[in-house]
Write a structure and sequence with these properties.
alpha/beta, three-stranded mixed β-sheet, elongated
Length: 350
């Protein structure tokens, strides 16, 4: 591929036209390619026609149902796709040669991880890099993976379990830690903290996030595997209000261990491990394969890993005394609990 203006016995090929062609080929649709490239659809069509005229090749067949690549189009894709990927990798590595060149970054966190980690992580990161502006997006892990693949996020911290969707081919994943789902109930100063057999969840009214959250799907899958009915009383996605409801009432929940440990610092909660089976999920740092982490992004990921390891270190917190639990109950009951509609008699088997 030649740069514009470099004539060596052939027609010039504009790199931008090639990039548009590759996007249309991968999307299989001009409209979706235009949205991804953030340009209008006629501009995409014009660039494809210009590339075809330059190369004197028909790259796509136009039919009433859309477009499909010709043999020449498929051959050109095989030639140019590796070139573009190599160029993007080289471009990103060039920017990463000096970590001081990065002045802002976009990262994604799962809402339950964000609730437990964001404050500590951002405080530690800003002490080291006060000049870097950090944009945090809270979304479900499935959505974060798509945004990383599309280049909208520099990196994301996602959770991956038995029922998670696959990781896109364009995304690289680095394991940070494994985390259990744990049973959480109100701490009254009495009661057992021994591990809870999964089948003992049957009949216990639970408040859980909606089923589109990954760990809810993993919980329901485990329930189906051991033929245990889950009694769902409330659904609420926000971890803070969810755990406030548990601390102020008779409902229990199942949440990631980091979320439970952090909430137990200020709420009267008791944590019990789930066994037979355990429900374990992997925490991953993900980024685009063609965009290796810059030194600053690598430092951010290292801080997240350190905070996760610190939160999960050691045994589960011990139950409080009756006096301590009573004091926390008085404090937490003063906080307003959001109005959440109950799900009457709803049960789920996964």
């Amino acid at each position: 591929m030649q740069r514009r203006g470099d004539k060596q016995g052939g027609s010039d090929v504009d790199f931008k036209l090639v990039e548009t062609f590759l996007c249309v080929f991968e999307e299989g649709n001009v409209t979706r390619a235009a949205a991804k490239l953030n340009i209008v659809q006629p501009a995409v069509s014009t660039q494809i026609k210009k590339l075809e005229a330059t190369l004197k090749l028909e790259l796509f067949e136009r039919t009433p149902r859309g477009i499909s690549p010709t043999p020449s189009g498929r051959a050109l894709y095989r030639l140019f796709a590796p070139v573009l990927e190599s160029f993007r990798t080289a471009e990103h590595q060039a920017h990463a040669l000096s970590s001081t060149q990065i002045h802002e970054m976009s990262v994604g966190l799962n809402p339950f991880a964000s609730d437990a980690l964001t404050g500590d992580v951002l405080q530690a990161f800003r002490i080291r890099y006060p000049e870097v502006e950090v944009h945090v997006e809270e979304e479900l892990s499935d959505t974060l993976l798509r945004h990383v693949a599309d280049g909208a996020l520099d990196l994301a911290i996602v959770h991956f379990g038995t029922q998670s969707v696959g990781i896109p081919a364009a995304v690289a994943a680095v394991p940070l830690a494994d985390e259990e789902l744990v049973f959480v109930e109100r701490d009254t100063g009495a009661g057992s903290s021994e591990p809870l057999h999964f089948t003992e969840l049957a009949g216990r009214p639970l408040v859980l996030p909606k089923s589109r959250l990954g760990f809810r799907r993993d919980l329901e899958y485990a329930a189906a595997q051991c033929q245990t009915s889950i009694s769902l009383a409330l659904e609420i996605n926000a971890p803070g209000p969810l755990l406030d409801i548990v601390a102020n009432g008779e409902l229990a929940t199942v949440v990631p261990e980091i979320t439970a440990r952090r909430a137990m610092e200020h709420l009267p909660l008791r944590i019990r491990r789930l066994i037979q089976p355990q429900v374990i999920r992997s925490i991953l740092c993900v980024h685009r394969r063609d965009r290796p982490l810059s030194p600053i992004l690598a430092q951010f990921a290292a801080i997240v890993k350190s905070k996760i390891e610190g939160q999960l270190a050691g045994p589960l917190p011990k139950p409080r005394s009756r006096r301590e639990a009573a004091d926390l109950n008085v404090w937490s009951s003063a906080e307003p609990v959001p109005d959440v509609r109950p799900l009457r008699g709803r049960r789920t088997h996964g």
